[in-house]
Amino acid sequence: MTSLPLLEPATDTACCAPAVPSLGAAEANDRAAVFKALADPNRLRLLSIVKNAQGGEACVCDLTDPLDLTQPTVSHHLKILVDAGLLHREKRGTWAYFSLVPGALERTAGLLESL
Amino acid sequence: MTSLPLLEPATDTACCAPAVPSLGAAEANDRAAVFKALADPNRLRLLSIVKNAQGGEACVCDLTDPLDLTQPTVSHHLKILVDAGLLHREKRGTWAYFSLVPGALERTAGLLESL
DNA sequence: CGCACATATTGATGAACGTCAATATTGGGG
DNA sequence: CCCCAATATTGACGTTCATCAATATGTGCG
Question: CATH for B25-113?
Answer without folding.
Answer: 1.10.10.10
